[in-house]
Amino acid sequence: MPTRGIPYPTGDPTLPPSEERAWRRRLLDRAVESLCTAVDGPTLFPVDGADR
Among 18, 26, 37, 51, which one has the highest count of C-beta atoms within 10 angstroms of its own C-beta? Predict the structure, then answer.
Protein backbone atom coordinates (compact mmCIF):
# COMPACT_ATOMS: atom_id res chain seq x y z
CA MET A 1 0.00 0.00 0.00
CA PRO A 2 1.53 3.33 -0.97
CA THR A 3 1.39 6.09 1.63
CA ARG A 4 2.46 9.72 1.97
CA GLY A 5 5.87 8.88 3.38
CA ILE A 6 7.51 8.06 6.67
CA PRO A 7 6.70 11.37 8.46
CA TYR A 8 2.98 11.04 7.62
CA PRO A 9 2.25 7.37 6.74
CA THR A 10 -1.52 7.69 7.04
CA GLY A 11 -2.19 11.29 6.17
CA ASP A 12 -1.19 14.52 4.50
CA PRO A 13 -1.02 17.65 6.68
CA THR A 14 -1.06 19.86 3.58
CA LEU A 15 -4.67 18.89 2.77
CA PRO A 16 -7.71 20.67 4.16
CA PRO A 17 -9.59 18.56 6.76
CA SER A 18 -12.36 17.43 4.38
CA GLU A 19 -9.85 16.23 1.75
CA GLU A 20 -7.68 14.62 4.43
CA ARG A 21 -10.68 12.63 5.68
CA ALA A 22 -11.57 11.51 2.13
CA TRP A 23 -7.96 10.46 1.46
CA ARG A 24 -7.79 8.48 4.70
CA ARG A 25 -11.09 6.77 3.83
CA ARG A 26 -9.79 5.72 0.39
CA LEU A 27 -6.64 4.37 2.06
CA LEU A 28 -8.68 2.40 4.60
CA ASP A 29 -11.05 1.00 1.96
CA ARG A 30 -8.12 -0.13 -0.18
CA ALA A 31 -6.37 -1.71 2.82
CA VAL A 32 -9.47 -3.74 3.69
CA GLU A 33 -9.82 -4.80 0.05
CA SER A 34 -6.17 -5.90 -0.01
CA LEU A 35 -6.67 -8.01 3.12
CA CYS A 36 -9.53 -9.84 1.41
CA THR A 37 -7.61 -10.52 -1.82
CA ALA A 38 -5.79 -13.80 -2.43
CA VAL A 39 -2.38 -13.24 -4.02
CA ASP A 40 0.27 -15.57 -5.41
CA GLY A 41 3.22 -13.21 -5.10
CA PRO A 42 4.13 -9.58 -4.63
CA THR A 43 1.08 -7.47 -5.40
CA LEU A 44 0.60 -3.70 -5.43
CA PHE A 45 -2.67 -2.15 -4.30
CA PRO A 46 -2.53 1.48 -5.47
CA VAL A 47 -4.81 4.05 -3.88
CA ASP A 48 -6.28 6.77 -6.13
CA GLY A 49 -4.68 10.07 -5.19
CA ALA A 50 -2.08 8.48 -2.93
CA ASP A 51 0.78 9.12 -5.32
CA ARG A 52 0.55 12.90 -5.47
Answer: 26
